[in-house]
Amino acid sequence: MNENNKATRRIRFSVIDFLIILLVLVSLIGIAVRYQIISRLFSGATLVEAQITVVASNISAEEAAVFAKNTVFSANGSTFGTLTQVSSEKATLYLESPLGTLITYQSADHYDVTATFTAQVVRSEDGFLLGGNTYIAAGSQFVLQAENVSVTVLVTYLDVNQV
Length: 163
What we know:
Elements: H1 2-8, H2 15-43, E1 48-60, H3 61-65, E2 72-75, E3 78-96, E4 102-124, E5 127-130, E6 134-136, E7 141-146, E8 149-160
Antiparallel strand pairs: 1-4, 1-8, 2-3, 3-4, 4-5, 5-6, 7-8
């Protein structure tokens, strides 16, 4: 009789099971809607060329040597842009003396590099997106990689040619 009861017993869903299934369905619908919204936002958007000026402060001579024209840099695994202009000068450090006055010091082996890149951006409601997916504006910081060297840069100027 015990075996007969097991065969005729039905699978019952409790309220918790129903809530879990409902939560999974709502999550899937949310993900689908989110990606549809993103594709609609950028479906008409086109990449436009921009000039991005960055500053790398107090970097070593080896890091400064990577900043050569036509070098392609990447950030976060995607292309940041192609270097078009570069200038460098000895890094200026500002130190405070024991008397509280400011002393400037020119570093012998570190440089401040100003570089201009040509990159592709998309205009959005909030500003510009580098490559269509990373927010970029003056004041943004990026870690750029090229030739096994990583350098932290500060975006100082963004000029979009075709707005």
